[in-house]
Design a protein that fits this description.
With 358 residues, this protein is α/β, with parallel strands linked by helices. It contains 12 helices and 19 strands.
């Protein structure tokens, strides 16, 4: 089968091979034919080494497809079922799951260290235990979440990561208060989803911040009341909040510099939500006096900060009701053979989400 492979961490191009085999099928596992997958910035971060991932590997973790085969002991799934792939399934039995913090379950991360594929030259891993830049993938049954027949594969793929992460940051983690002021720093697919979440919660002012003009224009279409470049943020803070700072600021870039900017633009007593996935050696500096004196809440948001399966269901309900726009997030579509074109679209900021059709 075909799959896009990164040979070594630090390379910026993928190579598409047709001699890749999905491995690991057996009890408790399912084989999935991938029909659509989104390109998330986390894939680029894994390729560059910002996020830890063994190589060689198949990137991609935001996918949807159809069950081809189910292993012994699998319940609730059968061949032909349409599913979204969940890269962070909950085991249901660890301390985090028992506390109701299923987004903190580590079972999914353990899958990242087991090869999902092989080529004649040896084992190949799947990013985040999945690897959706492939025609087929074998995953634990808990990673395959059934979706209704009316949800297209490309829409379902986005729900598998970016939309759930961005919406959840606003709805679950921040629980944005109606009438509040919000700033979202970084307006790709995840940031735009945070904008939509803030709008759903009734935020009065939503300022989208991004260096790319096309993304700022898109943010306005998705519910932002103002869209500015980073060097215009100070003026927007003054105009919208009288200089006090925003009630909520979402950092959706994953860098300490933007997190520091987000902190400085959060009002005293306000809430800073860290959504972007950054590097382990990139440290955010805060002094002990400002932490005490400003009383700002700093809330990291992992995968939307809530129960993933409920978040999927909620997102589908909101999409069906026309309360959120998911199709509009897909600005580009490319076949798997043109995967490097999709990478360029992400790096330059010309795409909110590129759908790779497999």
């Amino acid at each position: 089968m075909r799959a896009a492979v990164l040979h070594e961490i630090g390379q910026d191009k993928l190579e598409v091979f047709d001699d890749v085999e999905a491995v690991g099928f057996g009890p408790g596992r399912v084989r999935v034919r991938v029909h659509a997958t989104g390109l998330c910035h986390s894939d680029l971060s894994a390729m560059s080494g910002v996020l830890p991932q063994p190589a060689p590997f198949v990137p991609g973790h935001e996918g949807a497809g159809e069950i081809l085969e189910v292993g012994e002991g699998v319940r609730g799934l059968k061949p032909g079922d349409r599913v979204v792939l969940c890269w962070l399934p909950a085991c249901g039995s660890c301390p985090a799951c028992k506390r109701g913090q299923t987004e903190l379950c580590l079972a999914g991360f353990m899958n990242a260290g087991t090869p999902n594929f092989k080529r004649p030259g040896g084992d190949v891993f799947g990013f985040a235990g999945t690897g959706t830049f492939a025609e087929e993938v074998v995953v634990d049954a808990g990673c395959a979440v059934p979706i209704p027949d009316d949800v297209p594969f490309d829409i379902a793929a986005l729900i598998g990561c970016g939309v759930t992460t961005g919406l959840g940051a606003a709805l679950n983690t921040a629980d944005v208060e109606a009438g509040s002021s919000v700033a979202v720093i970084g307006c790709g697919g995840v940031g735009i989803s945070a904008v939509q979440g803030a709008r759903l919660k009734g935020a009065a002012e939503i300022v989208a911040v991004d260096p790319v003009a096309s993304r700022r224009e898109s943010a306005l279409r998705f519910g932002a009341t103002k869209a500015v470049s980073p060097d215009e943020l100070a003026d927007a803070k003054q105009q919208v909040t009288g200089g006090e700072g925003f009630d909520y600021v979402f950092e959706v870039v994953g860098k300490s510099a933007t997190a520091r900017t987000a902190y400085e633009n959060t009002r005293r007593g306000g809430t800073l939500v860290i959504v972007g996935a950054g590097a382990m050696d990139d440290f955010l500096q805060l002094n002990m006096f400002e932490l005490f004196f400003d009383e700002k809440r700093i809330l990291p948001s992992m995968y939307g900060g809530g129960d993933v399966l409920r978040s999927y269901e909620r997102t589908i309900a909101l999409w069906r009701a026309g309360r959120i726009d998911l199709a509009g997030l897909i600005t580009h579509r490319v076949p798997l053979t043109d995967i490097n074109e999709a990478l360029d679209q992400m790096r330059t900021g010309t795409a909110l989400r590129t759908c790779i059709q497999i």
